[in-house]
UniProtKB/TrEMBL annotation:
Stored Pfam families: Esterase
Name of the protein in question: Putative alpha-dextrin endo-1, 6-alpha-glucosidase
InterPro entries, sorted: AB_hydrolase_fold (IPR029058), Esterase-like (IPR000801), Mycobacterial_A85_antigen (IPR050583)
Length: 461
């Protein structure tokens, strides 16, 4: 299995009191083989650090100061990112390091620990030419590392979020890293460019951890887990239409016993989230949901279970998504009903398989049978418009001009009722008249989604 960390560099800003992020400057993917690690220069560098009698920070600094091979440095920094997380603390010292291709000539570490001073902790360019690092004595911190935000700064006035940091968050000035996350408030963590043996494109896996959560503790084994698709849009308030902001909803509504795991989409989204092929814009696409499910079951869930000590299965797991993410959520319920206690599909593309393809026999609506032991939430905005009519005779109601998958969602509700699902017990259906097909609408409905699954058996393990 391959894991990877991508360092995506952004820039922009309004000064030390208002650090901001704007355009993407560069991106690199750094791969890690998690099991059978092949012998290469990068791994040699990481093993040399492990075997060194020096402190870990000293060994890393020595590598950064002398190694000219970018790949070897990337490998060592990647190893730290996945094992310990950045930044590294040891004996009262902190090492911060980043890769910044095309960086300004002068770079500094700025944040709460130095009152956002651009001169207090000037970074050193590594021998590779692509990396920067700085070692800071904790005694110089003007604020506690716990709950301290930080970024990288470059002259003349460029602020860049530390995309290598394990813990991160958002404020009025965009994304920032945490030196150490706050213990009395929720925070986000990320594992960027998670690679899979089942799908070609890497994608990030993100986690929202409630206040006071301690990984691999007894308490961690008692939390519920929420698994979300389209993770790019789940937490980031700068995402399309303001994103779902699930983290804000969970914190505001008091879901303190929930850990949320979000899997980013990738260029293969239309394929990974669909169970069969369809014809879109004259091209046949789709049909790799089985591979996506294998990635979830065999790679993502085992990874987060080991990392955080959560159960994330059976009644303690809820799976949710929107549009194609809603489709794949409902499809997973049909294939692995024992995997989760509740699944939710918001504005789900339930007509997939009949959009441009003749016949509707392969749609989830037509294929559904029985009543699997998993609760289901369905919703849509839009309306019937000029009417829900099977205009092409394929057995699937066409959405017409009402949009937001209203007609197909209503038809799926009837299929589930006929299969034995009972409204308010195993089945929840919500119609938000006229609501658009976008993140703002799904954000508005998400509290009701959580309440519905909570009422239908989504519970602590």
């Amino acid at each position: 299995m391959l894991w990877a960390v991508a360092l995506v560099v952004g820039c922009g800003g309004d000064g030390p009191s208002a650090p901001n992020d704007a355009a993407v400057v560069d991106a690199r993917v750094i791969e890690r083989v998690d099991a059978q690690i092949p012998r290469d220069a990068g791994v040699d560098a990481a093993e040399a650090i492990d075997a060194s009698s020096e402190s870990r920070i000293d060994a890393l600094v020595e590598l950064l100061a002398s190694e000219t091979d970018v790949a070897r440095v990337d490998s060592a920094l990647r190893d730290v990112a996945l094992r310990d997380g950045w930044p590294v603390r040891e004996d009262g010292r902190w090492l911060f390091a980043t890769r910044w291709d095309g960086s300004p000539p002068r770079v500094s570490l700025v944040g709460d620990v130095n009152a956002w001073s651009t001169s207090a902790h000037v970074a050193t360019r590594a021998a590779s030419g692509a990396h920067w690092f700085v070692v800071i004595d904790e005694s110089t911190f003007v604020a506690s590392a716990i709950g301290a935000k930080y970024k990288w700064w470059g002259e003349p006035d460029v602020y860049r979020a530390p995309f290598e940091s394990l813990a991160y968050g958002y404020d009025d000035f965009g994304e920032h890293g945490w030196v150490r996350p706050p213990s009395d408030a929720p925070h986000l963590e990320r594992f960027v460019a998670f690679d899979s043996a089942f799908l070609d494109a890497p994608r990030a896996v993100r986690a929202w951890l409630p206040a006071g959560f301690v990984a691999r503790s007894e308490g961690a084994s008692r939390v519920r887990t929420l698994l979300l698709h389209d993770g790019n849009n789940v937490f980031d308030p700068g995402a399309l239409f303001g994103g779902w902001q699930v983290d804000a909803t969970l914190a505001r509504e008091g879901w303190s016993d929930v850990v949320a795991i979000a899997i980013d989409n990738a260029p293969d989204r239309m394929s990974a989230y669909t169970h069969v092929t369809d014809v879109i814009g004259g091209s046949t696409t789709g049909g790799r949901a089985a591979d996506y499910l294998r990635m979830i079951e065999d790679e993502v869930l085992p990874f987060v279970r080991a990392r955080y000590g959560i159960v994330a299965s059976g009644r303690s797991l809820m799976i949710a998504g929107s549009s194609l993410g809603g489709l794949v959520s409902i499809w997973i319920a049909s294939q692995r009903p024992e995997l989760a206690g509740c699944v939710a599909g918001l504005s789900s593309t339930l007509g997939w398989g009949s959009i441009g393809r003749a016949g509707g026999a392969d749609t989830l609506i037509a294929r559904w049978s029985g009543r699997p032991a998993v609760a289901i939430y369905l919703d849509s905005g839009g309306s019937a418009g000029s009417g829900c009519v099977d205009s092409d005779g394929d057995g699937i109601d066409d959405d017409g001009d009402g949009r937001d998958n209203y007609c197909e969602t209503r038809q799926m509700r009837e299929v589930l009722r006929d299969a034995g699902y009972v409204d308010g017990v195993h089945l929840h259906y919500v119609h938000a008249p006229g609501a658009a097909h976008d993140e703002a609408a799904w954000r508005a409905r998400f509290p009701a989604v959580l309440d519905a699954c909570d009422a239908s058996g989504w519970a602590a393990p």
